[in-house]
Amino acid sequence: MTGNTVKVVSTPNSSSERLALYQQILAAGAGDIDVLQVDVVWPGILGTHFIDLKPYTQGAQDDHFQAIVENNTVDGELKAMPWFTDAGVLFYRKDLLEKYDRAVPTTWEEMAETARIVQKGEREAGDDDLWGYVFQARAYEGLTCNALEWIDSYGGEIVDAKGDVVVDSPEVIDAVTEAASWMKDMVPPGVLNYTEEESRGVFQSGNAVFMRNWPYAWALAQSDDSPIKGKVGVVALPKGGAEGKHTGVLGGWNLAVSKYSAHPEIAADLVMFLTSPEEQKRRAIEGSYNPTITDLYQDEEVLAAVPFFGDLYDTFENAVARPSGVTGEKYNRVSAAFWGKVHAALEGNEDPETAMSDLADELGAVKRRGW
Amino acid sequence: MQGSELTRAKVRSALVFLAPMLLALALAAGWPLGRTLWFAFTDATLTDTGSYAFVGFENFWNPDWGGLLEDANWWTAVGNTLYFTVLSVTLETILGVGIALALDVPFRGRAIVRAAVLIPWAIPTIVSAKMWGWMLHDQFGLINDLGMKLGLIDQPVAWMASSATALTAIVAVDVWKTTPFMALLVLAALQMLPRDIYEAARIDGIHPVRVFFRVTLPLIRPALMVAVIFRGLDALRAFDLMYAMTGNNESTMTMSVFARQQLVDFQDVGYGSAAAALLFVMVAVLTAAVLTLGRVRLTGGVR
């Protein structure tokens, strides 16, 4: 017991909205909020407003995934402590796959085939509301995550490590073409305005065979009032064709202390408590939040509560990062242009090839302003 | 009259009484507007608000990365805004006049109906946007359910997801929300009209439709034009409905949503201010055009 009280401030669910709110609070130098929950792509954007946590950690960061610690380190200062990590995963309905005698898909093409077979079969049997696949395709950061997973699974990139725009490569076009083909017959048309919660709503009410989402959806799908309790499986996202690879975009949240806080020591203490092994373990078991502490992936109690953590350890550790490092402050602009063109391609307003070559031009103009 | 002591005293006291209002206006409207116009010519960003440089017209046009005038997204936003403004204001005006005419006729319970009509206008936009968002939802939405049951559509439509329907659906929500406001303004004008003209028209046996177009409409025109300009200005800077219902989707993005995205999401204060400045200029020009073409004097009456 420290005798300190923590007040939790509710912020918008959408990460784009939350970032905008933080920017307004921090740019004004307001000390109202001591501890902020920050996305993995934000340390580069918001880092100047956070204190260096190294004096408070006593080396605790060494137990966490090193990729995330490095991501959170700006100019040698640890701007945020990893709280939970995230990578996109594929949820599927075990019962429906068994009913139609389909294997768990390993490529996007197989996934689409199975989704179509099950959807057709169930609709003929009278379930008019069943869809093959749901994901996040609203014009927001979540679509960037989804689309980056497709193109990474085919071996493509938006911007390469040198900072060159490579989004008009054949791999990227193949990936976007495959995704656009799902829109025609196996995805609810409203998916173009869905975020995580809307797609979970459809999947959890039993109306979808497959869903791409973050691991948090597991605990909710398995809760007592869930109509699909016990019927859900989780695997790594499919490969892009037989030659592709399994991937997942690196997501996850970190905790940072505002430079404008009136009590930085107490705030840092709270961060260290929330990111401690005990607390991460509790959150893993109760909420299926992925720990960032590597040892917890061998913890029996954690694995009993969330069995897929063990199998997907590699996916979590090798998740594909969004190009926020190389594009720096321009990342949001890059991401918005990317999700905008992918949205247009999914909707069928532009064919994937034109959309991606337009995007390359647009990103080229952004790059000329410097990143 | 010009030099009379009394007139000068009147002018003096008028200035004294007006001074607080003018000062407040300068602080509340002039200062932010001036800052925005200044930032439009700089490369300021939100990350470091302290240091920025004057860059001239670079945010508007430059040979290097194009600028606002070459930004396809900006022109999409301009197109969306004009589409929204023309369609919503036209529909609201027609429906508003219709409702006002109905409410102008005495009937039992008229006071309650008049108050009830205002409810959509009284609901905060963000609340009605969320409410309509759920009603238009493709899986759980009331509108699709109703349409299916009545046989109007054979499968649920994702109103907010497709760019073909999203902006029109937003116009529909705006019409639902703002028609009462138009109706109220028109009703106020109708109630000022002398009743004896109508009596004369009735005795002469003139058809009511003819009476409306030859008598009512010309008489309420000044008030109607003010209401249309009011709504037009409001629609040109529309933000909340689009943003709450579809976020930063390009197919529904208005000029205000575009400017906000640049300013806040991209932290580009210079470029975002340039967009805001251009929005201001366009609104000013369009208002001046409507005032001239509509021969409206804001002080009342028709020239």
From TrEMBL, chain B:
Residues 78-292 form the ABC transmembrane type-1 domain. It is a multi-pass membrane protein. The chain crosses the membrane at residues 82-103, 115-137, 157-190, 211-233, 271-293. GO terms for biological process: transmembrane transport. It is found in: Cell membrane. The keyword Transmembrane applies. Its main location: membrane. GO terms for cellular component: plasma membrane. It comes from the Bacteria. CDD domains: TM_PBP2. Keywords: Cell membrane, Membrane, Transmembrane, Transmembrane helix, Transport. It holds the Pfam family BPD_transp_1. InterPro entries: MetI-like, MetI-like_sf. Belongs to the binding-protein-dependent transport system permease family. PANTHER family: BLR7065 PROTEIN, INTEGRAL MEMBRANE SUGAR TRANSPORT PROTEIN. This is Sugar ABC transporter permease.
